[in-house]
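Kindly inspect what follows.
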Amino acid sequence: MPDGRVVLKENRIMMVSDEMGDIPAGNTRGLGLYFSDTRFLSTYEFRLNGLQPILLSSSVDESYVATFQMVNPVLLLDEGKRRIPQQSLSIRRTRFIHGGLHERIGIQNCGSEPVDIECSLCVDADFLDMFDVRGTVGALHGHQARKLGKPRMPVVSDAGIVFGYDGLDGVFRQTQVLMDNAPASGDANTLTYTYRLEPKQTVRLVVDVIPVIGEDDTAFASLQDEALEALQSSYRHWQESTTKIKTDNAFLDRGLLRRSQMDLRILVEEFETGLLPMAGIPWYSVPFGRDSLITSIQMLMVNPEIARGTLRYLAEHRGRKVDREREEEPGKILHELRYGELANLKLIPHTPYYGTVDATPLFLVCLVEMMDWLNDTDLFVELLPATLGALNWIDEFGDLDGDGFVEYAERARGGVRNQGWKDSSDSLLYPDGRPAELPAALVEVQGYVYQAKVGISRILERMGQLPLAERLAREAGELRRKFELKFWLDEEQFYAQALDRVKAPIPSVTSNPAHCLWAGIVDPERAEILRDRLLGPDMFSGWGIRTLSSRSPHYNPMSYHNGTVWPHDNSIAVAGLRRYRHTEAASQVIDGIMQAGFRMPHYRLPELFCGFRRDQRFNNGPAEYLVSCNPQAWGAGAAFHLLQTALGIVPDATAGRVYINPLPFGQLRNVEVRGMRVGSGRLSFNVSYNGGRPHVEVVEKPDELAVVLDEPPLIT
């Protein structure tokens, strides 16, 4: 529960409350009940005799159920003549999400005397679009977003309160707040219940909050037990469908890995095309091309169905035409898709919005990685039109000036200026602090393009499609040659972050080139130089690799992209270091990130954390970033990507083999991997560390798959 938020999510419905379980009226932290990018509940406050209870503990250990244990403050009755001591009443709130919010509030008199209490539930619904809740939308086409539609008068009855909203987009939205029994009194926002509790007696309030889009006035029947059983069953199915991983390190096993797996379950939604991870809660619980693709790659060893569903979804929503307002172009992969009133009115370009330069090559990289794991030729053929479209976009639309590099330039009103993964406005600066002149060619994007073309070429060659395979291989080789000439900085002995409008290098020392190690575009000799710089004290904080060198004039360990540590960024860097055989450096970063995860609340790897130096003398922990998304998909996926790299798992299913070559890390002695999908079957193995070279025992494998206990050949 970072910064006091408690998050529950199931499919498109999400509840974000404070640590008490409340949504305070007028809060500015994004708390609320959301459905399809709209806040259906903006106030939700439980009070006892008009006072807020005292919190003892709250728990979201099971990810899908939240529990709040509270007691009463001192209560004065009969105009102060009677006094109910503190901790006389036990108050327990339990909730889950399944088609809406379902909550039970139990109150028990633990004292020896009867007590009279008044319980109240204050509720409200503002139906704000998520963009307006975030405060990122001011005046849009002369309108304030919050004044677009028209709220209806709340309807109060013995069943509860119903709020309605007629959107300017022609969509009627309503929030049904339903109770299991009639209140003693009620008005437009508050339901009140009065009870006389005998000693040891318990009363219970059952609340269902159902968000509805459209004119469906069907009464909702509360079946909380059945809904909870269905939710529990879906979680059991999720666990059964994922790779089982067991280690002798409780912090890793029952902490970091379990939390990451549960966080991904919260964030993954199911569409007709299959599973798709949303980016992060609360602001980005929507399809997000780059984040969904990187998360899919990270999770291949755990559940490759995520990659399959993501590829299908993004292929279905790929660009079909040139639309400058949405930055759409044929073959381009979307950046972000929104569902709310502003999107329906086309007051924002996210319908979908295509302003990203890296999602299209990453789509191809994800496809290659999926083929390396599953060799699913049927899916490859199914996605061939999208694959060819993406390749064509890279050459025709991505390369704006025909120099062989993929660039971006902001085109859409209300769009994104910096269109790589570091997409904040100050992430690409000249040394004097000026924003880089666009178009810009980002260093990591050239790596992704190289990685995509080499990988697709390899697969096509094995499928007998030689002309296209040979062409892509030639293009990749030429890109690599140009890359080394233009991006290498002799003075810094490092790669530039980007090339600007006139192809002058942006000389910032950043984590971006580490992605090029993962892509395999880096010259092996320069990879050693890169390794040393990434692990130097200006880049490696002790917890992980910073996004920007501490020597930079723009460095700030608390800046979003200019000095913080991002777990997903580090997981990609680690995979790159391992690819070039720099195992000691990889092990050092793995240990740093995992140790940070062990010290985070609930063992959750966040979107990012501050880049302050790790001080071993005082045993300090990593400092949390104030507004980090938690949970966040590629933060959760980083744990498994790091583990895959640590175990040295490199699949090559199209060639009928998989490499396993573990490196020691984290003082582990044993790791068990069961049911990992590779090729047409499942691979299970044990790793034991006995002070020397790790020993691998293969328990089961597909018949057609050879397990090679060594590093794969270094091919760059």
